[in-house]
Amino acid sequence: MTAKHILVVGAGSVGKRHLRNFTSLGCRVSTMDPRRDRVQDASAEVKLERSYTDEQSAFMDSALFDGVVIASPPKYHVSQCVTALEKNMPVLLEKPVSPTLSDALVLQDALKGKEHRLILGYSYRWWPPLQEFFRRLQQAKAGKIHHAQFVMSAHLADWHPWERYQDFFMASKDLGGGALLDESHFLDLMVWFFGMPERIFAKVEKLSSLEIETDDNVDMLALYANGLRVSMHLDLYGRPHEKYIVVEGDKGTLRWSFEPNRIQFGGDMEQKWQHSDFQYERNDMFLNTAKEFLTVLDGHNGISCSLQDGINILKIVEACRQSSRSERTVNLKDLQGD
User: Fold this and answer.
1) pLDDT tens digits along 33-92
2) Burial letters 139-148, b for 16+ CB under 10 A, else e
3) Would you tell me which CATH number, out of the four given (3.40.50.720, 3.10.20.30, 1.10.357.10, 3.30.360.10), belongs to the domain 128-278+315-334?
4) Which pTM value belongs to this model?
5) What does the CA dihedral 328, 330, 335, 336 come to, rounded to 10 degrees?
6) Of 175, 184, 208, 335, which has the most beta carbons under 10 Å away?
7) How many Å apart are CA 261 and CA 128, to the nearest integer?
8) What are the helix (H) ranges across the chain?
């Protein structure tokens, strides 16, 4: 059987990760990035079948590729996906779908009848520790859930130490950076665990001295019809870095932390915790995403994260923005486009 040939659009950090992972899975890979230095860096890490510095040339060769990974800044996601779908290329799309809900709905129209051709890369869904956390929630380990807390705090200057954070797309509002959009991983986990909330109250703002145009602080309260309350904090200035989830129910408390990579459960009044430690690397979630994409290329229809999931997240993003501007709670069913 001929090895699958994957085109990766965008050769930044996550693009190079996809190039390495698909290569490790026995695929042939090519890349497109308008920055020639990034293409050269990628070629030093993996064998590239082809390389491009303009999008039009890459998509003109669509017949050479079995599928495409869109790993460019969010500003370009929708237009590049639409082009790929017009070329009948299955797509693995990095999150978020786009910077705005209205743009994502354009892609939804283009995908009609081809929903099985696109996987959305909210990669934590493919990570065994969080899959286990989800299973424990489904098993009602903590009983009926009343409150959950999600925290992601990580200083932007530490993300890519090989480049100035001011040059990273995360610093640019036009390219689709910022805490709310980029760390919408945690919004996705909230919806995966609990479904869509009814109402949102949020503050989205720039608080730190980081030299960026985008938001670096998000505080959100999600209100569910069943009485569940979810609080979420996302920031781009925190040190040491923290990522954790705490879920409190009437039978106890379930926790997950990124460092250490651990699930804990406590059901007593004292600080006595049962815990499970995991040895999985962060790259395993991306590798598992890539494996599922290869099954899509073979004709399988099961998708762990779809475009509709991404649109739901952008509805929450837009609710957060509207709430922050108005300083009022936003009901998702009354949400107007941005």
Assistant:
1) 999 999 999 999 999 999 999 999 999 999 999 999 999 999 999 999 999 999 999 999
2) eebbeebeeb
3) 3.30.360.10
4) 0.95
5) 10
6) 184
7) 11
8) 13-24, 36-45, 55-60, 77-86, 101-111, 128-138, 179-182, 185-194, 283-297, 307-326
